[in-house]
Amino acid sequence: MHRLLLPVAALLLVAACGTTTGTPAAAPAVSNPHTGHSPGSAPPPAPLRDGERFVDLALPQPYTPQAPNGGTDDYRCFLVDPGLSATSYLTGSRFLPQNAAIVHHAIFYRLDPKQATEAAEADARTPGEGWTCFGDAGVQGQTAWVAHWAPGAGETLMPAGYGFSMPPGSKLVMQVHYNLLETGTAGQTDRSGIQLRVAGGTSSLKGLTTDLFPAPIELPCAPGESGPLCDRDAAIADVGSRFGADAGQQEGQLIQGCSGGKVRPGDTQHCDQPIQKPGTIYMAAGHMHLLGRAIKIELNPGKPGAQTILDVPQYNFDNQALVPLPKPIAVKPGDTVRVTCTHDAKLRKLLPQLQKLPPRYVVWGEGTSDEMCLGILVAAPA
I want to staple 88 with a disulfide (CB 3.0 to 4.6 A). Which of 3, 166, 187, 369 is the partner? Predict the structure, then answer.
């Protein structure tokens, strides 16, 4: 398996992730869809497997999110050290959002020693806990996505015999997306943490990778809606003003890579991307924001032997998890992965978080009021 081959490899959500395979969650009631996070207490972890131990990490001090540039979203990165003195494998994780009212998602990136030094410097020169990091870990070079959490997810266990390689001295960046759209969230603090499930290098586990497959979003304003941001160019410029120039270019890069530069406005968008290296897919998730209706990930659609990796015809933002496939799926060079998402601009008038915002032409963006279409696959290279 290969990481995303388009120029947007650094999209790294990124924004959250996942939803279940198998039996999808029921669609939210039309009168009150996607109402927000469901705090609740996290269920206890599963028993440790042979060779595993728990490593508990948390923010040393509470952090008070502050959305920059007039927005309502704060992406904050925190450097955390699991204290690994020998080669290890990350075989599971259980993120513990201390303030679920404002935590939209969390992603954990493994850093090499040079990146860890760079991250420590960014932390040191930034007031307060952590540093701002829209879209990625905020350090140079490729980082490995080794864990994540989104609403509805509990403990995530890697398949028996597999894990993410953690060389000695590996450190992690914990990227947390804070959403401040809800009334009363301004000034609230968070001190989230994570319980890692770690196995020693002598366990002879096989390594895993997380591979990302995005598609563009070209969702016009709903019938009857109007305003300056219903203009596509104005909406893209607004994304760039809130999250930086790179964020403002993401939709254009997706359009170039997925449809040869042709913009096709509509509720449903897809993107086909080739596999360049052989491997086996073990887990899958899909990610959209509050206007998401359905997401599907397919292998070789329209060809003999085509398979559906993930199909969620009724997407629920508050029920997201990375889950094992019923049966692992082998892939090879020349195969194609297609991700397809359907969004619904009419939901904007039904969602408490979005009702107070002006109508907009929705494109790919980091904010909760923007959208994403992302397939997430955990695979073992051959």
Answer: 166
d(CA 53, CA 51): 7
Cβ neighbors of 315 (< 8 A, separation 6 or more) are 19, 24, 27, 286, 288, 292, 293, 294, 295
In 3-state terms, what secondary structure has residue 69?
Answer: coil
Same fold, 9-208 and 210-381: yes
Q: Mean pLDDT, consecutive 10-residue segments, the chain of 382 residues?
A: 32 30 30 44 84 94 90 93 94 94 93 89 92 82 87 91 94 94 90 96 88 97 97 96 90 96 98 96 95 98 97 90 94 97 96 92 94 96 94
CB 327 within 8 A of CB 28: no
Confidence (pTM): 0.86
Residue 31 exposed, middle or buried by CB count within 10 Å (0-12, 13-18, 19+)? exposed
Domain locations along the chain: 9-208, 210-381
Tens of pLDDT along 85-140?
999 999 999 999 999 999 988 999 999 888 999 999 999 999 989 999 987 787 87
- State which amino acid sits at residue 220: P
Going along 49-170, which residue ranges are E strands?
A: 52-58, 73-80, 88-96, 103-111, 131-132, 144-149, 156-157, 162-166
Fold of 9-208: Jelly Rolls (2.60.120)
Distance of alpha carbon 27 from the chain centroid: 21
Provide the 3-class DSSP secondary structure of residue 16.
coil
Which residue's entry shows tokens 């692992």?
Answer: 328
CB 302 within 8 A of CB 295: no
Token code pair at residue 291:
């206007």
Q: 3-class DSSP state for residue 298?
A: strand
Which amino acid is present at 5?
Answer: L
Q: Report in angstroms the alpha-carbon separations of 156 from 18, 99, 178, 199, 215.
A: 11, 20, 21, 15, 25
| Ramachandran category for residue 352: left, alpha or beta (phi over 0 → left; psi -120 to 50 → alpha) | alpha
What would the CATH number be for the domain defined by 210-381?
2.60.120
Backbone phi, psi, residue 145, to 5°: -80, 115
Pairing of the two strands 162-166 and 206-207: parallel
